[in-house]
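We now fix the convention by which a protein and its fold are recorded. Think of the row as the fold of the chain written in a discrete alphabet. Here is one such record, which you should read through line by line.
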Amino acid sequence: MSSSYPNKSNQRHEQKHSSTHLHSHHHPHSHSHTHNGKLTFAVVINLLLTIVQVVGGVLSGSLSLIADALHNLSDAGAIVIAIFARKISAKKANESMTFGYQRAEIIGTLINSFTLIIVGLYLIYQAISKYFNPTEIDGWIVIWIASVALVVDIATAILTYMSGAKTSMNLRAAFIHNVSDAMASVAVIIAGILITLYQWYFVDVIATILISVYVLYHGGLLSMQSINILMQAVPQDCDVSTIKNDIENIAGVIEAIDIHVWQLDEHKLFLDCKLIIKQQTQSLEIAMIKTMLKEKYAITHSTLEVLPSGQNIEEKCY
């Protein structure tokens, strides 16, 4: 046993019930008004840019510029959803919402990922239509407007990242919106240059499809991650059989059954498990299990129910 596990003298504070619970429902948030101010500014500049790009796309005849405009509009929507979801998630737990509102950010992520998928599919549809109905394109208009868009996209991505994209899946979805739009702007600029120099109008369609594939990839990835959390799937870095073995390797534990591991949000992991352990040292084994779960798996919320050692296996599980 690791020396970091509690000894018997530390167990006087353990609750000596057959079912023990370690749930903490007060989750402090450090989101500031400054961060929301940055995100609001990002929304405003994206909406203005969308208008400029749509006008430029119509005047130049460039589908990729209009595609980039739609993506920018989705960026603004993604940030609005992120702000709204973050405000809801900051609300404290109450009698009707005992786990709190943290999953509001996961729902925001799911909405944003679905908008990415819808935008990606729409752009592919438009690219195919443009391929069969080619039109002349003014490359210089495309280059200038896409260059302005690139600057705005980079600025928006930085603002979103500084507002918490590194630690929040919800804001990370909005950040990916911005990064993918910056890449889209680069693709549009390249298309504009090739159109201006060589009149290769087909690159406008190619640029649009490349943007679409990138958008669909990240939309699908984020939607699967958020759906897994909402469906209470086992977290990606956890293996139930390995956790079972680690619990049963603790001296005094006879068997661990009916193990459930899930996430409340992208940071908080929960475990529920039934145990058959030696009754004489019950409190010690429970403390050791909780310490092991916290140190090895970052599971700080665990519910461990102790069953009588003589109970039939059919009666142990639901």
In short: The chain has two domains: 8-25+234-316, 33-230. The two ends are 32 Å apart (CA to CA).
